[in-house]
Amino acid sequence: MLSFRYSPPIPRIQPLRLGDGFILLSLAALLYAGTRLAFHAPSVVVGPDLSLELGALPWYSLLSTARMLAAYALSLTFSLGYGYVAARSHRAEKVLLPLLDVLQSIPILSFLPVVVLGLSALLPQRIAVELAAVVLIFTSQAWNLTFSFYQSLTTEPLELREVASIFRLNGWLRFKALELPVAALGLVWNSMMSWAGGWFFLMAAEIFHVGARDFRLPGLGSYLQLAANRGDTRAILMGLIALVTVIVLLDQFVWRPLLVWSDRFKLETVQAAEPPRSWFFDLISRSWLIDRFQSRMWEPWNDRLDGFLGRRLGVGARQVEGTASEQLRMPLMVLAGLLGAAALYGAYRAALLLADLPLAGWSQIGLGTVATLARVSVALLVTLLWTVPVGVAIGTNRRLAEILQPLVQVIASIPATAIFPVLLLVLLRAPGGLNTVSILLMLMGTQWYLLFNVIAGAAAIPQDLRDTTDLLRLPRWQRWRTLLLPALFPYLVTGSITASGGAWNASIVAEHVEFAGRIHTTLGAGALIAGATGDANYPLLLGATLTLVMTVVLINRRLWRRLYRLAEERYRME
Predict the structure, then answer these.
(1) With the CA atoms of 299, 303, 308 and 313 taken in that order, what torsion angle do they form, in degrees rounded to the nearest 10?
(2) How much is the pLDDT for 68?
(3) pLDDT higher for 231 or 14?
(4) What is the dihedral sign for C-alpha 227, 228, 232, 233?
(5) What is this structure's pTM?
(6) Nearest partner of 434 among 495, 358, 523, judged by Cα
(7) Phi, psi of 210 (to 5 degrees)
């Protein structure tokens, strides 16, 4: 049942701690190192000529999908490792969660000079730009996956942990048989959201400008960006049709089968009356080739892997690991000291770079951050009002989910930046101008983070609890108060954190829009970062990014971290 026991008051969380300060210093040093590498990058880099012909779309679609797949593989690996360490080590959690707050709040264009120009100074141009595109897409995919996995581990049922302890499962078997299955449903839904987020920022990852440097890669994102810049409505429409086709194919051949597969890991004692279905999953599950592959190759390889990792993670291995950790303590302390010294030196050099920023620039940053914070707050409030009821309807009604889930995934994956310039011509005449329009673009890019988490939370509610509320004939509001909202609370916290982080990220395209050769901007931190990136104004870029990061970290520590603790202590399946 859902636990509603009284929990002691959560200790007061300080706005910033020593670890937070070290993280911010390290971030400043990293951004400064990227700008220094930028000085040694080629002065002008021009990518291959892009074509808006219809025949180029299949090849561009394949290239973009390959980049998305590489970024997703990197994101999933990062999320599983990072989330596991943060959830299982209290010492690591104090550093890793603030660091994750910082990383998810940095706009993609703030990563851009560090990643692109740094790699261009070290690697051949084409390889550097391809790797940079993958890394930039990774920054739009990884954070919500990590938060989802962390939330699943910290709210897993205590009795299942006790069972794992009774059976003396080693670390690998505990991860494979308990922790990964508990997190499976949330990971699948957030994987769909990660791909949607990757499609959203694909235009920024495949074609961009940094000062006089012009970087471009052939792909759907660059195709749509070029079409929008030229005001070619026909090309935009063709590009969107190609993108929707790719999304529908992925839904039918990848995501829908994964949802059917992950449904078996729900924590319930009664099977749902209408489990999810997939024609492709049914097809491959009856395949003779798949059956032979599983029995002849997959199962023997899986058994050998379990045996190998079981021996490595057994009691003896833990003793060896403890001895090794004692032997490595001094080298690790020395390495930590060297890294700390490098971070302090980089922070000092970053401070010198910030000294070149005039007082008027700091005034712009302060006003822009307040304006963007107001837009993010309004966007998150509007998102909560509609995603909670719609997400619950989709997550608890299988028939409705079969109709709306692919539709929602398609709409969420269409880059709002591709259709927004066309709507801009009409919406700029609305009251408030770009101030109002920028909130709409934030909604188009970030509301899906919350919606997908609400759907995952609603779908994870055990069927026996739903049947109990039906038998008791609870009124609608009573059902929401006693079952739906408590069960959704951890997912609402995770979705709100990632949605707010996505809104800060989307500010760079919501407050600075280019269409048909004209640039439309409004007051905001995102507009400052986008303008500083295009003008190669590194002091302004560094100052705006650090101010934005500190604002988001303070909000996360004062609000979202408290709600995470509340979800962990009061709202879990037990």
Answers:
(1) 120
(2) 92
(3) 231
(4) positive
(5) 0.71
(6) 523
(7) -130, 100
| Angle, vertex CA 313, rays to CA 308 and CA 317, nearest 5 | 105
Take residue 76 and report the two structure tokens written for it: 């999933």
Contact 108, 505 (CB under 8 A): yes
Asked if the model's pLDDT at residue 73 lies above 90, the reply is: yes
Q: Per residue in 246-280, pLDDT tens?
A: 988 888 888 888 888 888 887 665 555 566 777 78
The single-letter DSSP state of residue 177 is I
115 contacts: CB under 8 Å, gap ≥ 6: 34, 132, 135, 136
Top pLDDT among 122 and 30 is at: 122
The number of domains in the chain is 1
Q: How far apart are CA 156 and CA 267, in angstroms?
A: 10
Cα(102)–Cα(30) distance, integer angstroms:
13
Res 534 pLDDT > 90: no
207 — phi, psi (to 5°)?
A: -150, 125
Angle among Cα 512, 195, 179 to the nearest 5 degrees reads 130
CA distance to 119, 476, 479, per residue, from 464 (Å)? 54, 17, 14
Checking if the pLDDT of 318 tops 50, the result is: no
Task: Assign residue 367 the CATH number of its domain.
Answer: 1.10.3720.10
Task: Compute the distance between CA of residue 201 and CA of residue 225 in angstroms, rounded to an integer.
Answer: 11
Looking at the domain assignment, is residue 476 inside a domain? yes
What is the pLDDT, as a whole number, of residue 66?
A: 92
Helix H or strand E encompassing 186: helix 180-200
What is the model's pLDDT at position 422? 59
In a domain, 177, yes or no: yes
Angle between the N-to-C axes of helices 180-200 and 485-510, in degrees from 0 to 180, rounded to the nearest 10: 20
Provide the domain limits for residue 251. Answer: 18-278+360-570
3-state secondary structure of 394: helix
List, as one string, the DSSP characters of 26-55.
Answer: HHHHHHHHHHHHHTTS-S----PPP---GG
Q: Is residue 26 part of a domain?
A: yes
Beta bridge partners of 515: 518
Residue 501 pLDDT more than 70? yes
Q: Quick check: is 410 in a domain?
A: yes
Distance CA 44, CA 536 (A): 13
Six-digit token string for 45: 């880099």
Q: Residue 469 class from Cβ within 10 Å (0-12 exposed, 13-18 middle, 19+ buried)?
A: middle
Select from 226, 188, 249 the least CA-distant residue to 421: 226
Contacts of 279 (CB under 8 A, 6+ apart): 252
CB 212 within 8 A of CB 42: no
Q: How far apart are the first and last CA of the chain?
A: 5
